[in-house]
Amino acid sequence: MGNSAQKPSAVGNSAQKLPEIEDIMDEVELSSTEVGYPVPTSPTPLDDIFERKERWLTDTFNNGSDDTELLKSLNLITMDLNTMSDEYVDDDATVRPPTAITEKRLAFPFATIDNHARMADPKLLDSFEDLIEYLTKPLLHDQYIKIKTARAILVWLSRQNLEEKNYGKKGTDTPRGLIQYLKEEKMSYTTCYAILCRKAGLQCAVIKGYVKGITNAGDDGSQILSSWNAVYGETGWQIVQAYWTCRAIFGYSSGKWTKVEEDGKTMSKKGKASPGTEKNIFDERYFMPDPEQFIYQCAENKEWQLFPPCSIVSSYAKFAKKPILHFSFFDLGLQLISEQNCVLETKDGFCKIELKAKPSNAHLITLSYELYRKKADFELNGEKENGIEGETDDEEDFARMVFNTRAAEVFTFDMRFLRSGIYKLNIRGGPHTSHYQSLCQFKVVCKKGMVGRGLLPIDCGKIGWGPGPTAKEAGLLLPSKPSGLISVSTTDRKTDVKFQLRDMTEKNILQLYMVK
Questions:
Q1: Three-class secondary structure assignment of 194-241
Q2: Relative orientation angle of helices 111-118 and 145-158, to the nearest 10 degrees
Q3: Which end of the chain, N or C, is surrounded by fewer C-beta atoms within 10 Å?
Q4: Under-50 pLDDT residues of the chain
């Protein structure tokens, strides 16, 4: 059987959770499929039927509309910031803080079965029959009994305490014996989950393939042999990554990277190697995900990719080059419209990444970034060096290297490097005022720094360049120049910037004056 490996995510943030590598070989041999299993085909996406509990997007975001729609119901005034009079000053007025978007969890049809599974009596460990009977008790007349049974088993598995409890003698004749196999690291979660599902009468396949792990995320595009499952339910075959759903490591850091910039601010935060602490979780994103999103993290050789034939990733080499895009990237409706590669090379010290959002809610999204520089030994220009040109604490070498700008629904990260080196860009974001999640990562190889060009003149902070959610909250709609980068004639040296205004009040006028 293959090893279960880490999922890609950001490095250096001690608060984040990451699954570690489950580097074991199964003592129990299990066939990948059994007689009578249906042929693998593309399934109906589960999100078309169920709403997920852990969705982090608000109703405001999901039901967003662009500025054009707002024009139908609002009385707007055109304001030219270049000709606005200095008379618009009110000493008693105060700038309103941004209106907070209250996050609301979406209704979750799985909630009842999840809670039921978490309350299972420890005595059920002694019998497969008793355990399955308990987990499926609420589902006897459920339209999606197969999908929810697969879910209940996974929730129950995620609750088993491997660190503190001893489950006795390992074996395959009771659930207790299976969990002891896990505790002694003699069985993978893939095999354990397949046995439990088959005991419940479900058709559960064992899939071998490759993953991009945290040890190489945004790094060299290499792959780790791994395994996961597919369960046949009412919507067809669905992927389940049992280990990544049930276990995570907190506080992991490779120690190979130094954070040199975050949202325009220069820093020199050297990462320290830490193995982290492994704990139980329930990350439902790996329970029956969309195969077209899962392929950016795990890939099997064609048959079990569960794609239409036209979308099949034909080789592991093509999988290795795929950019590292997390589920949260797709939740926001983003697309990568620049080079489709997890490793990018600069040209004369320059490199660009472009993302595109949906026009209906792009104005509600805020993106930020973290830039890291590799500090360990590595190969570059054919010579092994301990860092590029040596380590340095001179912040001027790593100041304002990333231009984070937006133009309507397109977000651009324009990077410019003074020094050669291996860098990693972690792009984060989410709906404005919500918590940010890691969206995607890229390794950037700079063999030659830029010459004769300066870095960005100022730090604009987390707001980024270009009109976005903060401008919208201030009542600034339909900008005449929607980009954060505006070209100015070398002769005239001026330009016009116009907006449509909503709610023309003294406070809004004051806000516009401050932006002028």
A1: HHHHHHCCCEEEEEEEEECCCCCCCCCCCCEEEEEEEEEECCEEEEEC
A2: 40
A3: C
A4: 1-15, 19, 21, 54, 68, 70-108, 218, 220-221, 376-395, 506, 509-516
Backbone angles phi, psi at 24, to 5 degrees: -135, 165
Give pLDDT tens digits for 33-84.
Answer: 999 999 999 998 887 777 665 455 655 566 655 554 544 444 443 333 333 3
Q: Which domains does the chain have, with CATH numbers?
A: 17-55+105-322 (no CATH), 335-515 (2.60.40.10)
CA-to-CA separations, 239 to 110, 147, 303, 406, 478, in angstroms, rounded: 17, 11, 13, 35, 43
Tell the residue number behind the tokens 């169920």, with chain if given.
50
pLDDT value for 216: 52
Tokens matching residue 370? 């973290």
Which H or E element spans position 250? strand 247-250
Nearest-angstrom CA–CA distance, 352 and 341: 12
Give the rounded percent of residues in the chain with a pLDDT score beyond 90: 41
Class of residue 248 by CB neighbours under 10 A (exposed 0-12, middle 13-18, buried 19+): buried
- Nearest one of 36, 34, 65 to 205, comparing CA atoms: 34
Q: Quick one: which H or E segment has residue 445?
A: strand 437-446
Long-range contacts of 383-392 (CB under 8 A, 24+ apart): 387/421, 388/419, 388/420, 388/421, 388/422, 389/419, 389/420, 389/421
At residue 192, φ and ψ (nearest 5 deg) are -60, -45
Q: Name the one residue in this structure whose structure tokens are 């608060």.
A: 15
Residues 322-360, buried b or exposed e (16+ Cβ, 10 A)? bbbbbbbbbbbbbebebbeebbbebeebebebebbbeeb
Per-residue tokens: 457: 């003149």
| Residue 514 phi, psi dihedral angles, 5° rounding | -70, -25
**Helix or strand run (H / E) with residue 117:** helix 111-118
Closest to 408 in 3D by CA, of 449, 364, 368: 364
